Amino acid sequence: MKKPTQTGGFFISLNILKFYIIRTMITITKGATNSVIMTLTEKSYLPNPVYLFSLTNNSDNLTKLFIMPDTTSYVRRYNQFDLIETSSEDLSNGRVELDYGWGKYEVYEAITATLSISGTTGRILEEGKYFVSGYPATFNNNDINDIYL
């Protein structure tokens, strides 16, 4: 870092300002109810929006679109959602099956419930990364081939 230079009693910094885009990350555990907290109401232009979540897995580029009901009683301050990771999907109620690993998420606003991005306003209210972790519910020991040296 360079020292500031003095000119007429004022200090001028020779450093270049750098701006970073801060994105959020959601951690999801397989087979569990995951609490997701965001600030979407303050970014929305709609009076009573429905939020469409788009999660795209990095490994296969498959996208899941689903809606989660807002469960907070303080909507003007933050939004809380319960994402239920399960094999029995109900995409209109936050029940979704996701693959392990990293991906990106986007949240859109809509006037009515829709499972299509074209049914939203097209505005992305929030975006970021997500990670699905956890262990499979069942493990079959017969799938392992023992190798002895």
Topology:
Blueprint: E1 5-7, E2 10-12, E3 24-29, E4 33-38, E5 50-57, E6 63-67, E7 79-85, E8 95-96, E9 101-110, E10 124-133
Parallel strand pairs: 3-10, 7-8
Antiparallel strand pairs: 1-2, 4-7, 5-6, 5-9, 9-10
What is the N-to-C succession of helices and strands?
EEEEEEEEEE
Note the beta-strand portion. 35-45%
Number of strands: 10
**CATH architectural name:** Sandwich
Nearest-angstrom radius of gyration?
22 Å
CATH class placement: Mainly Beta
Structural class designation: mainly beta
Summarize the structure.
The protein has about 150 residues and is mostly beta strands. It has strands at about 5, 10, 25-30, 35-40, 50-55, 65, 80-85, 95, 100-110, 125-135.
Describe this entry's structure for a reader.
The chain is mostly beta strands. The chain has one domain (24-133): Immunoglobulin-like (Sandwich). The chain is built from no helices and ten strands. The strands form three sheets. A five-stranded mixed sheet has the order 3-10-9-5-6, with no helix packed on it. A three-stranded mixed sheet has the order 4-7-8, with no helix packed on it. The chain has a two-stranded antiparallel sheet with strand order 1-2. It is globular, with a radius of gyration of 22 Å. Mean pLDDT is 83; it is low at 4-22.
Descriptors:
10 strands, 149 residues, mainly beta, globular, Immunoglobulin-like, single chain
